[in-house]
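[job 0412] stage=complex_fold ligand=iron/sulfur cluster status=START
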Amino acid sequence: MSMFEDIPVDVGVVYEGERIRRREMYVELGGPRVQYKFELVRVKKPEEVEDGKITIVGPDLKDLEEGKSYPFGIYIEVAGKQLEEDLEGVIERRIHEYCNYIEGFMHLNQRYDIWLRLSKKSYKKGLNSFMYIGKVLQRLFKSELPIIEKIQITFFTDPEKVKEMYEKALKIYEARDARARGLKDEEVDTFYGCSLCQSFAPTHVCVITPQRYSNCGAISWFDGRAAARVDPKGPLFAIKKGECLDPVKGEYTGVNEAVKEKSLGAITRVWLYTAFGYPHTSCGCFEAIAFYIPEVDGFGIVHRGFKGVTVNGLPFSTLADSTAGGRQIDGFHGISIEYMRSPKFLQADGGWHRVVWVPSEVLERVKDFIPKELIGKIATEKDATNIEELKKFLIEKGHPIVERWKEEAPEEKEEEVVEEKEIPELPLTIEGVPVAGVPMAGGGFKIILKNVKIKAKKAIIRRIEKSGGK
Ligand code: SF4
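[job 0412] stage=complex_fold status=DONE, emitting structure tokens
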């Protein structure tokens, strides 16, 4: 008998990555429409766990109204001789993977931000109780992680209970994160990698260091170490740091090799502490995005829960589309909230001194980790809703980025003057596009481009000497 014969829908890796659109969904659990949601795993003493027990606190799936969104919580208690608290975060992250094995059941994000949907099709097939989901999770957990000897699961849909548990869960996440603080990247010789999100972003690999928390904010370096030890064939693996090629940008030979191997050659270099050049890839379940704002030469931050539009006029969802997919995109950088508390946070780009706009909710969460001289100088949605307001705010408050503008301005001016003088001798070359012979020289005419977008990877302007040489 198959392990899932008594489950009304199919269960298997093949369903990972399956998306359920709003029109196809029967109900939504958690997600952006509800405030309270969580998933939490705790390691308990054997006598505290009744193996196989499943409890539903609040209405079951069949009692929920079609098309609606509900507060939701999954609380899993496990016991086993080899289990330790360090493994809670890792076991918890597997909820994402195993829920996604269930046909017509989608799980996104993590911790306090989970977002699940059940499809109408699977509901019609009979998946109408959390009992089935609980049974699948219990069997998968026990077969894939044999160190779990006992497991009991509680599903919460009662709004009051979800809220109560949510508040407890936040404290537990914070305690876990705080534990991982203090250790420096320079003090270890091994980092950890995670490829769990490759079902959604095939070239993505998280590199988890003591000072660069995973993008999802759910796996710390300690979690990675514990997982790689107990489940060496699992998605978390050790990365020998190798030689440090650049301590500021954060480039290591061992990281480059591991990422190249795990991304099947798609990504060959990673700079851990910058959003430019070869930034860490972004899957899709990052907690927040650091996005470059060229008008002020600084970074905005937006988290998944932010409603409305950011200071550059774009909502989280649009910025997430430009960031996700396991790519390395200059100036669009998926991050966790915990990474914002790290001294390595965007270190090569100027760190917090380069950050100009952060939603007030996030700023409040990380305020103790922001350099004192910046307090009150970083705008929130309450201070600036567009770039003009942002510029005004930064000038008024004396944000250090304003000094950067001043430093850059004279150079630009100088260049302009030189260009004006030298134009007769400066034919334009755009790499890959031959433009020789375009009569730019002599001041004979002016080219005005209107409503045009020009994209170029690189533009090189070379001086041609009169003798004919370069
Ligand atoms: S975001 Fe990174 S660490 Fe988190 S599950 Fe995905 S790959 Fe793993």
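Residues 93, 194, 196-197, 206, 214-216, 218-219, 283, 285 surround iron/sulfur cluster (CB under 6 Å).
[job 0412] exit 0
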